[in-house]
Amino acid sequence: MARNPQLNSHGGLRHLLSIEGLPREIVVAILDTAEPFTEVAEREVKKLPLLRGKSVFNLFFENSTRTRTTFEIAAKRLSADVINLNVSTSSTAKGETLLDTVDNLVAMQADMFVVRHASSGAPYLIAQHLEATRRPNVHVVNAGDGRHAHPTQGLLDMYTIRHYKRDFTQLTVAVVGDILHSRVARSQIHALTTLGVPEVRAIAPKTLLPSEVERLGVRVFHDMREGLRGVDVVMMLRLQNERMTGSLLPSPQEYFKFFGLTEDKLALAKPDAIVLHPGPMNRGVEIDSAVADGGQAVILPQVTFGIAVRMAVMSMLAHG
Ligand code: CP
After folding, report:
1. In this structure, is residue 65 part of a structural domain?
2. Radius of gyration (C-alpha) of the chain in whole angstroms
3. Of 58, 67, 142, 243, which is best to mutate to test ligand 1, by the most ligand atoms within 8 angstroms of its C-beta?
4. Cα(117) to centroid of ligand 1, in Å?
C-alpha cells in the first residue's frame, strides 16, 4: 500500500479514511466540489450521471440516521445503484469475517464501500485488503469507525462553517463536550487546523478529554463560560454513553449545568456565532432546546449540506 493509503499515485483521492493526513488542497477541493451540488439540489435537478453504472454498498455495522441516509441520497443523485446491507440479517451474524463479506460483495461488482464500524480501523483494514487483492477501482469511505474518525461529518461541518463565515483564518472555534469518545471531534479538529483556523478551543471536563489533547493543536478549557467567550462557532458534541466505561460524570443533570449549551452561555460567544451539532442530539443533556431550535443553530442545514459533501466525495473517488 502507498504511504498515504487515501491517495492514488497521482495524489488524487483513492479512499476517504480520515481527515488526518489529508492534504489541505484535497480538503478544499472536496468543499469546492460540493458547492455546485448544493446549487443543483436547490434548483431541484434531482440526478447527475457521475456514478452511472457504479454500485455503492452501504455497510453499517452501527446505527445511523443521518450518515447512512444522506450517503444513499447522495449516491442516488449521482445515478449510482445503492445497496444497503442489512448487517443484522447478513452472514456476518453467522460468523463470516468482515473481509470475507467484502470479497463476496466485490464479486458482486461493488465499486464503493461506505463503512461504519464500532472498531477503529475497520475501514483501513478493508482498504488495505483491497490493495493487497489488487482492486484499485474499489473505493472505501469511512462513515465512522469507533472513536477514531468520521471524515465526512468533519467535512460537512467545514462546509457549513464556510457557508456562514467564509474565511477560516479569522475564526475562533469551540468544540464542546465528550471529546474523549468522539470520532467527530477528532475529524473536526484535524479539519479546522488543516484549514488554518487560528484558535480551536476544546471545552470539556477533565474526564472527557484525551490525554495530551493539546498535541492536536487545541487550547483546553474546563470552564465552558470562559471557553465560549468571543467564539465565532460552537460545535457541540453528544455524550457518547455507549462508549463510556465506568463513571466519568456525576449525572446528566450535573453535566448539563456545567457543559450544556444554554442561551445564557451562548450569549458569551460573538452575537453572530453559529451553533453546530452532528446529531443525534440529547436535548437537556448537552444542549438546551431553546438553543437547538433557536436562530443561531445551523444543525439542520448541516444535514442538508451533508448530501452535497457526500456527493463530492463519491464523485471525486470515482473519477480519481
Ligand atoms: N452525525 C452522525 O453520524 O449521525 P448518525 O449517527 O445518525 O449517522
Report:
1. yes
2. 19
3. 67
4. 12
Cβ–Cβ under 8 Å, residues 122 and 114: no
Q: How many domains does the chain have?
A: 2
Question: Tell me: the pLDDT tens digits for 55-107?
Answer: 999 999 999 999 999 999 999 999 999 999 988 778 887 889 999 999 999 99
Do 35 and 118 lie in one domain? The reply is yes
Q: How far is CA 170 from the centre of its chain?
A: 23
Measured from the Cα of 62, ligand 1's closest atom is 6
What b/e sequence results for 256-283 when a residue is b if at least 16 CB atoms lie within 10 Å of its CB, and e otherwise?
beebbbeeebbebbbeebbbbbbbebbe
Q: Do 268 and 291 belong to one domain?
A: yes
Domain span at 134: 24-149+303-319
Omega cis (within 30) before 136: no
Yes or no: say if 118 and 61 are a contact pair by the CB < 8 Å rule: yes
Pocket test for ligand 1, best of 60, 64, 237 (most atoms within 8 A of CB): 64
Q: What is the pTM of this model?
A: 0.95
Place of cell 492514488: 8
3-state DSSP call for residue 139?
strand
Q: Would residue 2 count as lying in a domain?
A: no
Find, among 198, 208, 259, 257, the residue nearest to 230 by Cα: 198
Do 129 and 183 reside in the same domain of the chain? no
CA of residue 183 to ligand 1 center, whole Å: 11
